[in-house]
């Protein structure tokens, strides 16, 4: 067992190094500059240790000459990273919440990102804002033009009844926007056992198996999985769901926040899909 554990650890390290090595030098340098940029707040930079942007984007195969669509960027945590990397060489579409966001937090995040873009034209000046809200707002980018579609911590929302979304149409929009051979990258809070999964994702978690099924039903092929965003400290069983953990820290009254701070952010799947050639 000890030898097996050592082998698995070595394999994980090798996989991480290999993913990083696959990023070309210009993209790698641009990513380093973006991550260190003064346009990012200290609070956002502090989350790098949990969100692993370099390793995640390396795994997905980001290049700075790509056309990329970021889905529901919210306040723009990843937009702050992607926009400067792609500026001048590639193209970034930010497919924000629909033209009439349904929730206050969406309206606030949308307004905040727009204000951020206005204040930092050197960073965000080339970002093209589109919208995604099923069933009617699905044109996230011109059909067949995107090299990569990225969605971070959104799939669980499309399963929640209060959002009134159709996951099949959402994944279909990804498929339509991508070129043949294009990549869909998905990161979300992972529920560990599909047999006990809440179909409504009430606590914010979704199983890898369910996400894979949604992607395959839309026509995608599974191209790889990474454990770069796995967190074994996450017990997945919180009264207030995944939002009990950082960055929300929606801790039940009377409980010790430090306990949840020590866990960090959620255990997350990192899945890579490909649109088949000729599709």
Features of this protein?
279 residues; alpha/beta; Rossmann fold; eight-stranded mixed sheet; 12 helices; 39% helix; globular; disordered N terminus
What is the strand and helix layout of this fold?
Layout: H1 2-21, H2 25-36, H3 42-46, H4 48-51, H5 53-60, E1 67-71, H6 79-86, E2 91-97, H7 104-119, H8 121-124, E3 128-132, E4 146-152, H9 155-159, H10 167-177, E5 178-191, E6 206-207, H11 208-217, E7 221-226, H12 257-263, E8 268-274
Parallel strand pairs: 1-2, 1-4, 2-3, 4-5, 5-6
Antiparallel strand pairs: 5-8, 7-8
Overview of this protein structure:
The protein has 279 residues and is α/β, with parallel strands linked by helices. The chain has one domain (2-274): Rossmann fold (3-Layer(aba) Sandwich), CATH 3.40.50.150. The chain contains 12 helices and 8 strands. Strands 1, 2, 3, 4, 5, 6, 7 and 8 form an 8-stranded mixed beta sheet that branches. Helix 6 links the parallel strand 1 and strand 2 (91-97). Helix 1 packs across helix 5 (53-60). Mean pLDDT is 93; it is low at 1-21.
């Amino acid at each position: 067992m000890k030898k097996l554990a050592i082998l698995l650890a070595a394999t994980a390290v090798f996989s991480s190094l290999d993913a990083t090595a696959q990023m070309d030098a210009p993209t790698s340098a641009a990513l380093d500059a973006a991550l260190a940029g003064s346009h990012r707040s200290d609070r956002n930079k502090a989350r790098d240790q949990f969100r692993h942007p370099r390793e995640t984007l390396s795994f997905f195969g980001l290049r700075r000459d790509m056309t990329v669509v970021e889905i529901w960027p919210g306040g723009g945590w990843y937009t702050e990273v992607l926009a400067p990397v792609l500026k001048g060489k590639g193209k970034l579409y930010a497919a924000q919440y629909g033209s009439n966001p349904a929730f206050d937090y969406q309206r606030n995040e949308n307004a905040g990102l727009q204000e951020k873009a206005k204040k930092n034209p050197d960073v965000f000046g080339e970002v093209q804002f589109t919208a995604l809200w099923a069933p009617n707002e699905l044109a996230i980018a011109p059909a067949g033009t995107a090299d990569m579609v990225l969605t971070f911590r959104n799939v669980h929302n499309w399963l929640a009844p209060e959002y009134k979304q159709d996951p099949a149409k959402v994944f279909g929009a990804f498929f339509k926007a991508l070129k043949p051979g294009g990549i869909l990258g998905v990161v979300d809070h992972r529920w560990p056992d599909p047999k006990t999964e809440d179909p409504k994702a009430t606590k914010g978690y979704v199983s890898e198996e369910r996400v894979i099924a949604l992607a395959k039903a839309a026509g995608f092929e599974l191209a790889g999985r990474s454990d770069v965003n796995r967190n074994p400290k996450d017990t997945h069983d919180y009264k207030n769901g995944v939002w009990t953990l950082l960055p929300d820290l929606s801790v039940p009254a009377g409980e010790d926040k430090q306990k949840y701070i020590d866990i960090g952010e959620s255990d997350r799947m990192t899945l890579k899909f490909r649109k088949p050639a000729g599709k």
